[in-house]
């Protein structure tokens, strides 16, 4: 494994930095080269797999309070409290948004205080936070709390329950701003197969092509990650997760996962398939 030191930065500088390092060492650039980066400011290990492909940041591999929130989200006893469940999704959103903010582009702006002028580095990105109704609402709110000047976008996609091979994902609603040249944060708590997230992103693309894409999830299944690697085969996309789980059930739920994030946040829904059967 190749170990490199340095801050992880915005996507425009990432590939060039790695290529420069590899070039100085006379190492052939591999198509899929794993590496670990240590961020000098916080001394946290950030695992980034598959250089020159979609970057993956797993907050769950770092010792932080995020793992405490994750433990409560998964615990069947804590899940009885919907307010706490939604609150933990928001808190993970806060933590993930903070880590993500370190990758944005910054410049100095002069701020007028009551006693003088202070140059302060603030980000320049036009941030849009998009999510899939309804499961993503609490997680989405966590990002909006941190990026309080961000625009917001929504799509309504639902999964018709059934076996994995029979699942359909209709999409019925979209409301979003212009995404052209934005830094787009697509937040969805559960990344199972990756199908609904891919559909949501393609729908958002009708309103412009983002300059940068950050996909933010609470739990990701390995199968979903592999799917996104095929959908986004470039290094200008970053996947942020709080945990990675190994498997999917026959009904395409993440195992061990936490269950249905939408139902746990807002109450059990009646599936359209069951509704039709009752008619």
Structure description:
Helices cover 31% and strands 30% of the residues. The protein has 279 residues and is of the alpha/beta class. Strands 4, 7, 8, 9, 10, 11, 12 and 13 form an eight-stranded mixed β-sheet that branches. Helix 6 (222-231) links the parallel strand 12 and strand 13 (237-245). Helix 2 runs antiparallel to helix 3 (82-101) and helix 3 packs across helix 4.
Query: How many β-strand stretches?
Result: 15
Biggest β-sheet strands, sense, barrel: 8 strands, mixed
Tally of DSSP helical segments: 8
Radius of gyration (Å): 20 Å
Structural class: alpha/beta
Q: Secondary-structure element order, as H and E?
A: EHEEEHHEEEHEEEEHEHEEEHH
Please mark out the parts with pLDDT under 50 across 5 or more consecutive residues, or reply none.
Answer: 1-15, 17-51
> How far from one another are the termini?
59 Å
Strand coverage percent: 25-35%
Write the layout of secondary structure elements.
Blueprint: E1 2-5, H1 11-24, E2 35-39, E3 44-48, E4 55-58, H2 66-74, H3 82-101, E5 106-113, E6 116-123, E7 127-133, H4 137-146, E8 151-157, E9 171-175, E10 183-187, E11 190-191, H5 195-204, E12 212-221, H6 222-231, E13 237-245, E14 247-248, E15 254-255, H7 261-266, H8 272-278
Parallel strand pairs: 1-2, 4-13, 7-8, 7-10, 10-12, 11-12, 12-13
Antiparallel strand pairs: 2-3, 5-6, 8-9, 14-15
Helix pairs in contact: 2-3, 3-4
